[in-house]
Each structure stands twice: as structure tokens, then as C-alpha cells.
């Protein structure tokens, strides 16, 4: 049969089979598996049918725990059911997995395997998660390529129905889940042929039904539980043969024969590598290369890892085997070896013991590789084979890193390569926003589907969300591609942004005779001189060809804006000559129609115009034979950075993190604060420039700046001494802090993202030219040097004394130093202004629990952290535990702090006379309600600590233990502020149970919910905070249900402070709420409207969206303060005037709502009407709450 | 009492036509207009620029942040199909046609010549009985002559005329140097009707915000004087039906405009102010007036007070204050 060739990634391949062969799908987003759920949800939304002609029911749950529960229930009710997950999500499914397996229930879970958070979270791929469920009773089937993902998804489905053993089908996160490959797509007939309807019906017959009732899920006792557990043995014994049978059946259908253990290599191999997952591809490629050179080596690709069939495994091993290296993509600290290694030892030992091995007992060593998608290359694989060739092969080794602590690592030659010349290898450097990755995905599809070539695309993204660099790795050629690693020998390199050349050694990986395509605004005659010295050197020495285009010019002329994707794609095809020119243009245009057709004719035409104009602007520039440039690569961090920042973080920034040895890494995941300040990213093309004449010194720009790059200071004139020539200063208009003071608004232009929020909120207009404000955007490059000096000077001007700052006013509060700066959040982020405000107001005494999500990523993703310290060395202490437990994690902080405080007070009282009654009384009774009170308490505690040290040093007469304890916890006598921060996915969904419990404890913790109304970090999936009528992933046809009123629910406790704020609508209200939250001695929760790129809005003017949300009544501003109730007053204050504009005037400012009017116009009309009714109803309810007068009621 | 009229070759039961505006966005309103006695309805305008803008906006916001970050390679569900073109408008025409028996006149504001003709064809295919061209070219370029701009207007009318068979009307503005010449040119270019006059958003300045705030000022009854004059002048001189719009509030206004030569009178401000049911009041008022003054039909009075039929046509020409003062004597 001639099957369709498709160019898709692993997630889509798995989803394709899962959707077609299931009836119920329970989903929850987690990287890198989310795309599988997204595909299924999208297909279901458009009514796509599965192989039985029904549209599967796709339901989003509140957590993976919830998803697995729903799966369990649907299975018990007889539906073919599946789910998708990874990492922590899989761990949350474990309890149900035991149940599902114990009850012999057929299902397949598809897992894009990912690291588990240990010393740090990682979204990337390894087998830590799947190895954590190997004991549950699920069968584990491993795919190593995109084709295998599609094939094994079906084989697993067929095998689970026949064996009744539930299957976990897994493939490597990112390396396979996100790798785009040309594969053969299975047909509906293939799937029907593999799935036996009789088995489906048998599954249904086993379902719970009141029509033939029974019970399942009993409790058993010591007398029978054990025996009951052993009943399943025959099913597990039969499973491997069933899987092999299904593999054989599949081979007859498709011609692709798989085995439980597939051997590749020399028939007489002596050295064998055993592994599973995507690494099998690179190993196979390397084995083929080395066997062709006469090496006696081979490899076993493990497919069915559980149940582990010793017989099948031993049969797969060549009888000539002398030594074996078992590679595990996981780490089990403290174990006798990683799991696959132990299984292999176990298998060979058993067979040897029984005399059934058939050859001498081999040397067996185990090693770890590829954790968190660490590169696994032929060079490393060769090192593993070389290790096996030694007399005493290193055991429990690592490969791919430099372990200079316990010396586990194998050395390898990075120059060893098995890449073949007939395979095209291209690397494309782009900006996230310029569409480079999307274009390359299209290119791979064009090549894959337009030629007989094999094609592969893999895409590397940035750790930052703003100004992010993407690197696309494209391979294609006449031979199958098994290179499951990045390209480091490229014959085509494209740089889509010339600014990258300042920072990256881009041509390092170019081979001789390769081609370099550069997008540049520099005229072609001057391009050569504009290149850095190293680039010129590589171009000359590697005899490279240089092509240039001003893609921005073409984009501007054709209305494409910053999207240069189509233009650069056309250049690539024009230069690479894969197709004749006319054919290439035709194929690109066909691809444009497919990609953009749904978005309208105008978009298609714009892209067509861009294609047509590109070739006239593409030029080859002759490479001279002389270096003319002296420009060097910029250092990754500033020269005055601390050593750790330079030696570790700087290397990560420079893209050399793979070379950092183990010894340089912190042992327990602890990293220094305040490192973002050393990384000058220079990502903004335009930055704000201050006009002191127009400025009214309101500091609104400082308040909204998401990256803390615009700051205000008030200072005495004497501090101007030594100021750079261009440093700006003006008289401070207010007299609050004394006479004759100066004011400066300074921008950190090298840290600014150029979002423009500051300019948008600036209320001051230039009287002569009203298009100008007190801050205006200007090109960054000409300002960079001067403003760098100005910033360095500015930052050393003393801040105002915190005790004197009138923090209750927006203007004054913004003189407080932010201790959250230069994060990697999106340009214009709606969350970070709130986070920064916490750091300004309470940062020097804050301890922060941060739920996993955007805020944990921009707050804690290496290389650098925005959490900062003040000049006294104090600052927020920050940690991320998990997604689901953040409230509990933060409560733990409070419990410990209280315990420390109480213990300290007890000890103070106990030793009051020795320490000094007056000091002890002052400390215990200290009023720490304001900055002055906290300052004074800190002074007292310093005196106390000095005194305690003196007492201890003087010989404490048997009291040393107590005094040392008191000294160790004395700092807790100063007020600590516990903040629990996270997004709506945490607060409304996965962490809601914990949040609810924590606020019910009455503990003094402050919860900040950064409500973007979707799971922003994983790409905009719907949460219970998503409003009715908005489109989100998992709500492609608009969210049908209304938003949960989390605030109202919290208010029902009566003792919880609750505020709903929107900085863009009322910054003063936001500030007041934050101050009240801190002042309230009990649980508090702030629900903060956080605009987000997932709303599809203009981020530069996003504060207007916040205002419109409030004006429409959709987002009422309020504060519920239990302190007022204690005074006999109404605790609820409605602080905004709502219903000023219809909901749609707000909603249709945002693509998330508007797109529904274009995709489902009738539904959109219905939902917006219902949403409007929601708003009115809720508004009236709030008005009623606000109108309550307890005094009147008391009289009545 | 015969209130019927023939406008753009369409037989209308009354001369009252709700003009292009937000009221026609709802099918239920269009039904109400028919019930109240409207002779036809001009739908709200389809703006080519808006369609393009919406497409670009949708594409931009759903794609600009995609493929930037490993955890979120996109932020919106895959768009299987968006109705970003004129589909919504065309569907509205179809629904309006299904809902009522009176003629449905579409209104179009194009941007490019290609856009004018393409959308005109689609509107015709969707079943519109006629098409009103809402042409609006604001000449801000100081190097561009009036002749050049005028030719652009005429070219658009010619292009649309050659693209569709349904009647077309041109909604004119009153700012041409020679309204008469342009009216004649439009008629020669193929316009079946001329609607006098278009009203535009007028910018205002917000003194607090120092921002320009464009908004629409609804016409007042006094505004009727301008179309009254020009309909009277053009009546019988151009080969096109004349329709009045601007300031038509009451039965007397309709009668005056009909006497000046209008075949139809369009209303919007009055309907926004008094409700759609006001059409019935106007019709009732017209009937009363006609009975009292013994007119049997509108055709009896049409053009009776036009430039060509009044005793002193120069009264329509008087344009300055002194002469007006003099007219009181």
C-alpha cells in the first residue's frame, strides 16, 4: 500500500494514533506532552472522527492526578481511554496507575519522557519519569524516532487490548516529541486491522454496569491480599509474546518489523551497547559507521522494557558478546546501578546461573547519558565502545559531561563525526518573533513532501521569554536520518539578525566550502567591514560563500512588519538549489496557502509579495582574502561580575554550558541572587528616553516597567559630582524629602526589552508637540555607550531612606529599590510589575514560595536570576517546590518562621537578665508595623547578636547551647513576610485544594495570584480562571463556562483578606491592597489581573486592556478586609465603577475573544451575551455586598 | 394614498430607507424596519480596510509569540478556519434577504480598485438588490490636485459598474468643487442613483488628554437643508435617481425633499434617537399631510419645488448672508 508521507513531530504522531483509537481522552498540560493534548482537543473541536466514526470526548482536568482519575473511571466504564503526560505529571498519576494495572485494564498512556525536578526543574528529556513508574504494573514500550512513535502507539494499543496489561508508550521529550521528521503515516485501515473489535467489546463487557452489577476495588486483608496480587502473573508472562505477535502483525501490514529487543551491528560483535529511546538512533548510526570500518560492535535497542522478557533479551544478544555497556538516561542516586543496567545484569546472571546463557559471562558496565536532553553524539557513543575495549572498563560512568568530582565521565573526542557528505546540514539563527522556526518547519515539510529526500528538523529555543534566540537544525538527504543530535558540522548557516554576530561564534560549526546567509541592513558594499573579526576569519579560512539580504526592507515594502520568515525561507531555497527556482517558488507559495489560507487572502498575498520581492534583494558578496575588522565578540557578562557568575553563569550565557565541569556546579541547587544584572542582553531596538522638561515626576512608568529597567531617584545635589556628561537631572518638584533635591529618571538601556508600556502610561505630554511624552522611544544603539555610563553612575546614588518614604502613594513607593530586576519575562509582561512591587515594598524581609509556571521560569530559570539584594545584602529568598503544592510550601515557611520566633522569644525571656531586661522587652514588644519599626528592631537584634556572641565567647557557663541556638534564630525576631506567588493554573486548578486549606489555617501568609486566565507558561491552555467566551487551548470553541470567583470563595471564610486588583486600571488601589495584605495578620490573597501574550493583544498598550476590563465591570476592583469587620464595619469595599462600557468593548480588544467571532460567529454572539449577563449579575452581587451596613442590621 | 416610489429601478412601498449604520447589524432590527414601513434598507458598510486590518491583526497576534519558547510553541489553538474575509457581511445579506421582502441595499467602502470590484461581485452574488458605494478619499496630500482625486472617484464607479449588474448608488460628499459636475460624472460612469450627502466622523480635541478623538456627530434637522438644495438643483439634470440623507427627521422633511426631487429619503439619526418605530410615525404624518393637502401620490409632488420648477430658481443659488437677509424683505 502506498501510504501518505507526512512531515510531523513525535507528539503529533502519537496523538494521531491515540485520537483515532480512543473514545475518551482526559488531558492536562505539561511540557513537553501538551501538544498531544492540544492536537486531540483541536481535532475534537472540529468534529474529526476516529476509526469507529465517533468524535472522541476530550476533557481537560485540574491536574494530572485528576486526569488519571478520570481515565480510570472511563476505563472502568468501558470506554477506550487515553491520556498524555510527562515528568511530575506522570508522578501524580502513579496511584491510579497501580489501580489500573491491578485491575488489568487496557489503556495506553503516551508520555514524552522528561526529567523530574530534583536539584532543579528541567523541561527537557530523559527517562527519570518513566523509570519512576516501572513498578506500577504498566507495560513500558519505548520509541526512538518519530516513525516509531506512530508505529508503537498503534502496537501498544493493540497489545494492551489483547494482554489486558495497561501500556505506557514513551519517547524522549523534545528530541523525539518535538523533532519534525518525514514519516509514513498509518492509515485508518492499518489501525482497524491492528485493533481487534472483539477485544474492544470484551473490554466493554468488563465495565461496571448496574445492568450486570459487581464491585471492583475492594479492601483486602493479610489473609488474601498477597495471593490476590499474584493472580496477575500469567498476564504478565503472556504480555511479551503478545507484543511480539502484534509487532509481527504490524510488519506484515507495513513492512516495518520490530522486535522486543532489536539488534543492530556486526553479527560477530564483541562489544555491545544496550539502551532505549532516541539514543538508539545515534547509536545505530555510529555502529553502522564503525562496523563498516571493521569494528566488531553492535547495539540492542530495547523496545519493551516492562514486562522485561529475559528470554527475548538473551536471544537478541550475539553469542560473540564479550562486553556490554548499558546506558540509562536517568539517575538513581544511591542505587547499585541504574534500572536498565540492573535488569541486564539480572537477565544475564539468571541465564548464566541456569546454564542457558550460551556464551561466557561478559563484562557488563553501566553508564548514564543524556539527562535533560544533554547531547548524545557519535563521539560519546564511540567513547562508550572504546571504554568497553579496555581491560578494565569504567563502570557506573557518565558520558557527555566532565565529572571532575567523582571522575565518572568518559573522555570523548568532540571532533569525531559520522555525518555523511550527501546529507544537507543547515543551522538557522533567528529571533522568536521573526518567525524563523515556523519558516523552517515549513521548509522541512516542503522538502519532505516535495522530494524523495529524508528530512529532519529540530529546534532549540532560549531560556528567556523576551528577545529569545532560536536555532533551527535542518537535515535532509537521500539516506535515512538517524542523527538524533544537534548539527555541529554545518554546510549552511543563516543568521536572521545581524546583532547575533556580536554575541555568538556562529561560524564555529561551519565546514569548509559552506554557505553563510546574513540578513543585514548594511548595504552589500559595506557588509564585509561590518562583520566581526572572527566571522571574517572563518569566512576566509573555511572558503565560505557569503549571501546577504535586507529582509527588513523587503518585509516593510510588503507589509510583513517584523516577520521575515517567508523572505529568509525564499533565500534559503534560492541559494541551496534543492529545487529549480520556479518550482521552489511554487512550492513556497503552496506552503503559504496552506499555512495562512485560514487567516485570510490579505495574509497570503502579503507573503506572496514577499516571496516575489526577495530574489531581487538577495546578493552574493565576494569574500575578500583580508581581515579588516577588529570587532570582537561581546563578553557574556560584564567584566566586574563575581567569579561564579563569570565562570559558570557566563559560560551558560555564551552557549558553553556543556563544558562546565561538575565541580563548578552547586551541590544542592543553591544559586546566588542578583545575577541578572551582570547579563547585559541588549535586546531592545528602541528604548525609552526621558525628557525632564515634560516630566511631572509621577513615577507611573517606574511602577509598570515589567523589567525594572526604568527607575527614579531623589537625591541631594552633591551626589551629582562626577556625573557623566549626558547624565540627566532636574529639580524634584515635591518638598516631601527636603528642599533643593534633584530627581532623575534613568533607563537601563542594556536591560530594557523595549516593550513601551512606560511610554503608554506616561500621562505627561510635550506642550509643543503632543505626540511626545515625558518618555519617548528612541533607537538603542546610538544611546548604548552613554546610557551604560549613566546607569552605572545612577545606580550608585544613594536611595532614599526607606523609613522616610511615604509608601502609600504610588509616586513615593517607586523610590523604593526593586529587588526583582531584568527578568527573562516577555516584553510587556503583565505579571512582573506586581512581583516587582512585592520586592520593592517588602523584598528585604520576604521569603517567597513560587508555583511552577511563568513566574518560576522568569524567576528561576538559569542562567541568571532577577531576584536581587539591596546594599545591606538583604533581599527576597525565593524557592520553587512544585506546581501543585505551592500554597502548602509557603505555609511551611510561615510555620518554621513562627516556630523560630517563638523559640527565640522563649530563650530571650529565659536569659532576659543576662541579656538585659530592657533590650529583651524592647525586642519582644517591638512594633514592626512600618519601615521605621522594622529598622529599629533590626538595630536591636544586631545589639542582641553582638551581646550573645560576647557571652558565648566569654564562656557561657553551660548556657552555650541555648545561646548558640538563640544566636542562630535571632534574625527571625525581625518581621518576615511570607509570599506565595503563582499563576491561575496553580491557584484555580492544580493547587486549589492546597490554597483553600492554607487560607483556612488562618496563618499569616500572603498569596499573590497572577491571573492571566490561562496556563501561560505551557502555551495558553484554559484554566478555571479563563472567562466565558474566550478562546484558549483546550477551549478552541470558546470557554463555555464562566470564570470561577476565587475571591468570593475565599471571602466565605471571613478571616481572609481578599483583594482584586488591576494595576492598569488603578495603580493606587493596587498599592493600597498590597500594603493592607502585608499589614493584615492572617491569610491574604490578591488576585491580580495580569495581561499576557496569550490574550493576543498589543502588549505596549496592555494597561488599557486592564482599564477596560475594570470599566466593563468584568474585573471589579475590591478589597475585603476582615479588620473592618472587627470594627463593626462592612469588610467589603467595591473600589471601582463598573458597567461603564459594554463587555464587548473590552473583550473585542483582545484576540482571545475576537477570534471566536471569526471561527464560530454564532457561538461567539451567544457566549458574549452570556458573559455580559455574568458581568451584570456579579456586579449586582458585589454592589449588594458593598451596600451591607452592619450597624443598621445590628439596630434592627 | 400612494407612497410608493421607484428608486434604483426598485419598486419601494415607501420612500423611507434606513441609511447605513449600526441598526442594520441585527436582523431583528431589519424586520422591525420593514414592519414600520421602510421601503428598503441600506445595510451597514463593509470596509475593505477593516477586513484587511482584522486579518493582519489576527495573524499577528496568533503568531508573533509562537515558536519562541520551548514550553509554548504557540499560544492559541490551531486555527482550522477563520471567516476573516467579507463572509460575515455576505452572510448578513443572505440572512436579511431571507428575513424581509423589502429590497436590501448593501454598502461598500473599498480601499483598492481590486477590492471595490471583488467585494461588489461578492455582494451581488450574496443577493443584495443594490449596492451603495461609500467612497471616502480624504485628500491630505498637498501635491495632489482635485482633478486627480475626482478621477479616482469616477474610476471606482466605472470599475464597479463593469463588475456588477445590480443597481449602484454613489453616496456623495458635499465637498467637491463642483457638486453638479461630479454628480453628472457619476451618472455617466454608470451610477443609477446618487445619495446626498455622506456624513463623516469629525475629529475633536480632548483638552485634558491632548488627544484627537474622532467621533460621529449625528445630523440635526437643520442638516436637511444641504441635500434639499442640491437635490433641487440636480433634479432633472442628471440621469440618476436622487436620494436624500442627513437631517431627515419628520414627515415634513420627506415631503420637502420629495418636492425637491428625491426618490428616496434615508434616515439614521432620527431612528437612533426615536427608535425604529419612528418610521411608522413619519409615514403616518406624510399621509395626514398629503390628505390635508390633497396629494394622491408622491409622484405628484416629486420635483415640484426643484430648481427647474420653482418660480425663482435663483433662491437655490443664494449663498451669502446679505442675500439671505435681503430675502426677508
Would you mind describing this structure in some detail?
The complex is a heterodimer of chains A (1196) and B (329). Chain A has 1196 residues and is an alpha/beta fold. Chain A is built from 43 helices and 38 strands. In chain A, the strands form 7 sheets. A 9-stranded mixed β-sheet of chain A has the order 1-8-18-19-17-20-21-22-23, with helices on both faces. Chain A has an 8-stranded mixed β-sheet with strand order 30-29-31-32-36-35-37-38, sandwiched between helices. The radius of gyration of chain A is 32 Å and the shape is globular. The N and C termini of chain A lie far apart (85 Å). In chain B, 42% of the residues lie in helices and 17% in strands. Chain B has helices at residues 27-36, 48-63, 87-99, 113-126, 146-163, 179-189, 225-234, 251-260, 269-274, 278-292, 298-301, 314-317, 321-327; strands at residues 5-7, 10-12, 16-18, 41-47, 104-109, 130-134, 168-172, 193-196, 202-206, 211-215, 241-245, 264-267. Chain B contains 13 helices and 12 strands. Mean pLDDT of chain B is 92; it is low at 323-329. An 8-stranded parallel β-sheet of chain B has the order 3-12-11-8-7-6-5-4. A two-stranded antiparallel sheet of chain B has the order 1-2. A two-stranded antiparallel sheet of chain B has the order 9-10. By secondary structure, chain B is an alpha/beta fold. Chains A and B meet through α2, α15, α21 and α41 of A and α2 of B.
Please write out the topology:
The complex is a heterodimer of chains A (1196) and B (329).
Chain A: E1 5-9, H1 10-20, E2 24-27, H2 34-45, E3 57-60, H3 64-76, E4 81-85, H4 87-102, E5 108-113, H5 128-131, E6 139-142, H6 146-163, E7 167-172, E8 180-184, H7 188-194, H8 197-205, H9 225-230, H10 233-254, E9 261-265, E10 271-275, H11 279-292, E11 297-302, E12 304-306, H12 310-316, E13 323-328, H13 339-353, E14 363-369, H14 378-389, E15 397-399, E16 409-410, E17 424-431, H15 436-450, E18 454-460, E19 469-477, E20 490-495, E21 510-519, H16 527-530, H17 533-541, E22 545-549, H18 551-557, H19 565-576, H20 581-596, H21 601-614, E23 618-621, H22 643-653, E24 686-690, H23 700-704, E25 710-715, E26 730-731, E27 742-747, H24 757-761, E28 775-779, H25 784-795, H26 810-813, H27 832-842, E29 846-850, H28 854-860, E30 877-879, H29 886-910, H30 912-915, H31 917-924, H32 931-953, H33 960-969, E31 977-983, H34 984-990, H35 992-1000, E32 1006-1011, E33 1014-1015, E34 1021-1022, H36 1046-1051, E35 1057-1061, H37 1067-1079, E36 1084-1089, H38 1102-1111, E37 1118-1120, H39 1122-1126, E38 1132-1134, H40 1143-1147, H41 1151-1159, H42 1161-1187, ...
Chain B: E1 5-7, E2 10-12, E3 16-18, H1 27-36, E4 41-47, H2 48-63, H3 87-99, E5 104-109, H4 113-126, E6 130-134, H5 146-163, E7 168-172, H6 179-189, E8 193-196, E9 202-206, E10 211-215, H7 225-234, E11 241-245, H8 251-260, E12 264-267, H9 269-274, H10 278-292, H11 298-301, H12 314-317, H13 321-327
Parallel strand pairs in B: 3-12, 4-5, 5-6, 6-7, 7-8, 8-11, 11-12
Antiparallel strand pairs in B: 1-2, 9-10
Amino acid at each position: 500500500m502506498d501510504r501518505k508521507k507526512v512531515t510531523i513531530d513525535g507528539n503529533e504522531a502519537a496523538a494521531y494514533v491515540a485520537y483515532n483509537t480512543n473514545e475518551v481522552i482526559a488531558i492536562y498540560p505539561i511540557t513537553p506532552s501538551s501538544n498531544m493534548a492540544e492536537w486531540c482537543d483541536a481535532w475534537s473541536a472540529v468534529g474529526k472522527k476516529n476509526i469507529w466514526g465517533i468524535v472522541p470526548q476530550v476533557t481537560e482536568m485540574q491536574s494530572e492526578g485528576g486526569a488519571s482519575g478520570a481515565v480510570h473511571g472511563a476505563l472502568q466504564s468501558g470506554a477506550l481511554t487515553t491520556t498524555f503526560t510527562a515528568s511530575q505529571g506522570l508522578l501524580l498519576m502513579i496511584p491510579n496507575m497501580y489501580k489500573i494495572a491491578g485491575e488489568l485494564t487496557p489503556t495506553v498512556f503516551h508520555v514524552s519522557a522528561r526529567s523530574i525536578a530534583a536539584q532543579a526543574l528541567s523541561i527537557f528529556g530523559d527517562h527519570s519519569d518513566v523509570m519512576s513508574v516501572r513498578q506500577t504494573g504498566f507495560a513500558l514500550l519505548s520509541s526512538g524516532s518519530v516513525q516509531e512513535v506512530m508505529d508503537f502507539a498503534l502496537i501498544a494499543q493493540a497489545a494492551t487490548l489483547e494482554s489486558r496489561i495497561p501500556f505506557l508508550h514513551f519517547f524522549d521529550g523534545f528530541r523525539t516529541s518535538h523533532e519534525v521528521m518525514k514519516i509514513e503515516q498509518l492509515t485508518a485501515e492499518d489501525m482497524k486491522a491492528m485493533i481487534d473489535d472483539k477485544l474492544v467489546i470484551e473490554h466493554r463487557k468488563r465495565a461496571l454496569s448496574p445492568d450486570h452489577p459487581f464491585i471492583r476495588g475492594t479492601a483486602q486483608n493479610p489473609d488474601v491480599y498477597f495471593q490476590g496480587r499474584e493472580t496477575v502473573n500469567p498476564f504478565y508472562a503472556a504480555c511479551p509474546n503478545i507484543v511480539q505477535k502484534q509487532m509481527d502483525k504490524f510488519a506484515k501490514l507495513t513492512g516495518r518489523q520490530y522486535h522486543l529487543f532489536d539488534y543492530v551491528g556486526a553479527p560477530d560483535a564483541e562489544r555491545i551497547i544496550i539502551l532505549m529511546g532516541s539514543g538508539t538512533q545515534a547509536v545505530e548510526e555510529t555502529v553502522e559507521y564503525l562496523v563498516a570500518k571493521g569494528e566488531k560492535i553492535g547495539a540492542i535497542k530495547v523496545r519493551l522494557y516492562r514486562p522485561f522478557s529475559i528470554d527475548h533479551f538473551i536471544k537478541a544478544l550475539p553469542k560473540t558478546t564479550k562486553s556490554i555497556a548499558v546506558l540509562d538516561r536517568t539517575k538513581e542516586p544511591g542505587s547499585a546501578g541504574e534500572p536498565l543496567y540492573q535488569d541486564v545484569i539480572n537477565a544475564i546472571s539468571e541465564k548464566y546461573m541456569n546454564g542457558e546463557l550460551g556464551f561466557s559471562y561478559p563484562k557488563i558496565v553501566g553508564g548514564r547519558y543524556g539527562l535533560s536532553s544533554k547531547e548524545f553524539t557519535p563521539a560519546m557513543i564511540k567513547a562508550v565502545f572504546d571504554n568497553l575495549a579496555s581491560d578494565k572498563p569504567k563502570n557506573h560512568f557518565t558520558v557527555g559531561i566532565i565529572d571532575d568530582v567523582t571522575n565518572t565521565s568518559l573522555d570523548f573526542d568532540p571532533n569525531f563525526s559520522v555525518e555523511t557528505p550527501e546529507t544537507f546540514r543547515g543551522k538557522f539563527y533567528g529571533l522568536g518573533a521573526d518567525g524563523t522556526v515556523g519558516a523552517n518547519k515549513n521548509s522541512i515539510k516542503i522538502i519532505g513532501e516535495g522530494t524523495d529526500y529524508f528530512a529532519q528538523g529540530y529546534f532549540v529555543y532560549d531560556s528567556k521569554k523576551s528577545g529569545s534566540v532560536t536555532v533551527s537544525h535542518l537535515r535532509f538527504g537521500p539516506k535515512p536520518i538517524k542523527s538524533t543530535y544537534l548539527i555541529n558540522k554545518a554546510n549552511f548557516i543563516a543568521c536572521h539578525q545581524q546583532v547575533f554576530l556580536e554575541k555568538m561564534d556562529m561560524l564555529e560549526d561551519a565546514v569548509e566550502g559552506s554557505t553563510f546567509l546574513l540578513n543585514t541592513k548594511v548595504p552589500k558594499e559595506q557588509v564585509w567591514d561590518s562583520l566581526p573579526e572572527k566571522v571574517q576569519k572563518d569566512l576566509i579560512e573555511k572558503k565560505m560563500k557569503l549571501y546577504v539580504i535586507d529582509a527588513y526592507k523587503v518585509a516593510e515594502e510588503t507589509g510583513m512588519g517584523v516577520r521575515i520568515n517567508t523572505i529568509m525561507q525564499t533565500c534559503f531555497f534560492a541559494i541551496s538549489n534543492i529545487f529549480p527556482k520556479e518550482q521552489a517558488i511554487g512550492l513556497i507559495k503552496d506552503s503559504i496557502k496552506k499555512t495562512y489560507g485560514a487567516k485570510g487572502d490579505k495574509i497570503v498575498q502579503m507573503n506572496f509579495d514577499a516571496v516575489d520581492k526577495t530574489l531581487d534583494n538577495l546578493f552574493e558578496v565576494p569574500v575578500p582574502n583580508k581581515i579588516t575588522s577588529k570587532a570582537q565578540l561581546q563578553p557574556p557578562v560584564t567584566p566586574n561580575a563575581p567569579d561564579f557568575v563569570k565562570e559558570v553563569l557566563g559560560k551558560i550565557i555564551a552557549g558553553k554550558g556543556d563544558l562546565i565541569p561538575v565541580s563548578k556546579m552547586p551541590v544542592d541547587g543553591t544559586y546566588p541572587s542578583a545575577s541578572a544584572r551582570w547579563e547585559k542582553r541588549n535586546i531592545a531596538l528602541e528604548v525609552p528616553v526621558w525628557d525632564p522638561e515634560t516630566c511631572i515626576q509621577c513615577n507611573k512608568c517606574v511602577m509598570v516597567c515589567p523589567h525594572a529597567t526604568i527607575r527614579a531617584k531623589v537625591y541631594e545635589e552633591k551626589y551629582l559630582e562626577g556625573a557623566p556628561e549626558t547624565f540627566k537631572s532636574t529639580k524634584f518638584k515635591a518638598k516631601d524629602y527636603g528642599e533643593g533635591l534633584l530627581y532623575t529618571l534613568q533607563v537601563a538601556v542594556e536591560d530594557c526589552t523595549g516593550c513601551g508600556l512606560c511610554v503608554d502610561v506616561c500621562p505627561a505630554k510635550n506642550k509643543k508637540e503632543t505626540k511626545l511624552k515625558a518618555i519617548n522611544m528612541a533607537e538603542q544603539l546610538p544611546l548604548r555607550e552613554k546610557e551604560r555610563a549613566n546607569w552605572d553612575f545612577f545606580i550608585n546614588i544613594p536611595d532614599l531612606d526607606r523609613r522616610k518614604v511615604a509608601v502609600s502613594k504610588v509616586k513615593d513607593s517607586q523610590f523604593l529599590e526593586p529587588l526583582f530586576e531584568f527578568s527573562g519575562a516577555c516584553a510587556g509582561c503583565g505579571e512582573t510589575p506586581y512581583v516587582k512591587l512585592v520586592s520593592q515594598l517588602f523584598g528585604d524581609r520576604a521569603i517567597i514560595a513560587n508555583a511552577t509556571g511563568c513566574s518560576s521560569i522568569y524567576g528561576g530559570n538559569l542562567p541568571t536570576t532577577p531576584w536581587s539584594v539591596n546594599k545591606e545584602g538583604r533581599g527576597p529568598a525565593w524557592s520553587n517546590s512544585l506546581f501543585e503544592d505551592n500554597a502548602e510550601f509557603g505555609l511551611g515557611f510561615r510555620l518554621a518562621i513562627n516556630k523560630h520566633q517563638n523559640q527565640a522569644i522563649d530563650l530571650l525571656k529565659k536569659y532576659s537578665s543576662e541579656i538585659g531586661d530592657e533590650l529583651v522587652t524592647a525586642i519582644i514588644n517591638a512594633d514592626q508595623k512600618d519601615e521605621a519599626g522594622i529598622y529599629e528592631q533590626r538595630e536591636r537584634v544586631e545589639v542582641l547578636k553582638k551581646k550573645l556572641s560576647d557571652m558565648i565567647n566569654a564562656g557561657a557557663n553551660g548556657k552555650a547551647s541555648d545561646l548558640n541556638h538563640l544566636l542562630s534564630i535571632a534574625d527571625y525576631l525581625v518581621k518576615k513576610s511570607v509570599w506565595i506567588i503563582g499563576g491561575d493554573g496553580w491557584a484555580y486548578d492544580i493547587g486549589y485544594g492546597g490554597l483553600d486549606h492554607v487560607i483556612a489555617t488562618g496563618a499569616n501568609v500572603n498569596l499573590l495570584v497572577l491571573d492571566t486566565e490561562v496556563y501561560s507558561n505551557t502555551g495558553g491552555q484554559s484554566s478555571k480562571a479563563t472567562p466565558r467566551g474566550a478562546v484558549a487551548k483546550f477551549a478552541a470553541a470558546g470557554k463555555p463556562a464562566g470564570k470561577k470567583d476565587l475571591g468570593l470563595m475565599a471571602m466565605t471564610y471571613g478571616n481572609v483578606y481578599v483583594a482584586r486588583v488591576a494595576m492598569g486600571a488603578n495603580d493606587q488601589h493596587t498599592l493600597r491592597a498590597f500594603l493592607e495584605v502585608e499589614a493584615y495578620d492572617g491569610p491574604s490573597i490578591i488576585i491580580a489581573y495580569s495581561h499576557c501574550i496569550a490574550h493576543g493583544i498589543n502588549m505596549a498598550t496592555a494597561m488599557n486592556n486592564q482599564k477596560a476590563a475594570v470599566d466593563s465591570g468584568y474585573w471589579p476592583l475590591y478589597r475585603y478586609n476582615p479588620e473592618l469587620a472587627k470594627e463593626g464595619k462592612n469588610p467589603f469595599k467595591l473600589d471601582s465603577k463598573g458597567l461603564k462600557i459594554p463587555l464587548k468593548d473590552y473583550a473585542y480588544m483582545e484576540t482571545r475573544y475576537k477570534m471566536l467571532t471569526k471561527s464560530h460567529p454564532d457561538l461567539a454572539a451567544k457566549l458574549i451575551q452570556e458573559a455580559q449577563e455574568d458581568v451584570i449579575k456579579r456586579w449586582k452581587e458585589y454592589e449588594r455586598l458593598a451596600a451591607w451596613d452592619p450597624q443598621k442590621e445590628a439596630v434592627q | 394614498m400612494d407612497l410608493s416610489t421607484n428608486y434604483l429601478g426598485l419598486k419601494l412601498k415607501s420612500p423611507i430607507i434606513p441609511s447605513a449604520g449600526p441598526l442594520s447589524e441585527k436582523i431583528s432590527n431589519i424586520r422591525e424596519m420593514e414592519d414600520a414601513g421602510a421601503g428598503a434598507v441600506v445595510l451597514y458598510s463593509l470596509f475593505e480596510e477593516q477586513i484587511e486590518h482584522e486579518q493582519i491583526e489576527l495573524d499577528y497576534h496568533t503568531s508573533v509569540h509562537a515558536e519562541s519558547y520551548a514550553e509554548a510553541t504557540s499560544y492559541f489553538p490551531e486555527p482550522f478556519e477563520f471567516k476573516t474575509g467579507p463572509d460575515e457581511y455576505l452572510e448578513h445579506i443572505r440572512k436579511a434577504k431571507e428575513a424581509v421582502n423589502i429590497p436590501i441595499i448593501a454598502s461598500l467602502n473599498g480601499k483598492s480598485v481590486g477590492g471595490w470590484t471583488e467585494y461588489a461581485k461578492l455582494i451581488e452574488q450574496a443577493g443584495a438588490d443594490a449596492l451603495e458605494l461609500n467612497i471616502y478619499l480624504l485628500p491630505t496630500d498637498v501635491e495632489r490636485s482635485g482633478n486627480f482625486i475626482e478621477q479616482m472617484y469616477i474610476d471606482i464607479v466605472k470599475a464597479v459598474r463593469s463588475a456588477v449588474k445590480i443597481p449602484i448608488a454613489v453616496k456623495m460628499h458635499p465637498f467637491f468643487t463642483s457638486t453638479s459636475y461630479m454628480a453628472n460624472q457619476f451618472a455617466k460612469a454608470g451610477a443609477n442613483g446618487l445619495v446626498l450627502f455622506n456624513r463623516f466622523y469629525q475629529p475633536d480635541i480632548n483638552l485634558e488628554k491632548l488627544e484627537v478623538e474622532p467621533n460621529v456627530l449625528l445630523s440635526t434637522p437643520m442638516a436637511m437643508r444641504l441635500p434639499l438644495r442640491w437635490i433641487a438643483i440636480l433634479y432633472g439634470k442628471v440621469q440618476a435617481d436622487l436620494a436624500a440623507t442627513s437631517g431627515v427627521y419628520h414627515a415634513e422633511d420627506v415631503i420637502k425633499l420629495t418636492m425637491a426631487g428625491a426618490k428616496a429619503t434615508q434616515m439614521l439619526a432620527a431612528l437612533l434617537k426615536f427608535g425604529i418605530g419612528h418610521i411608522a410615525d413619519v409615514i403616518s404624518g406624510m399621509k395626514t399631510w398629503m390628505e390635508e393637502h390633497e396629494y394622491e401620490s408622491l409622484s405628484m409632488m416629486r420635483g415640484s419645488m426643484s430648481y427647474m420648477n420653482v418660480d425663482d430658481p435663483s433662491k437655490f443659488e443664494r449663498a451669502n448672508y446679505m442675500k439671505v437677509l435681503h430675502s426677508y424683505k
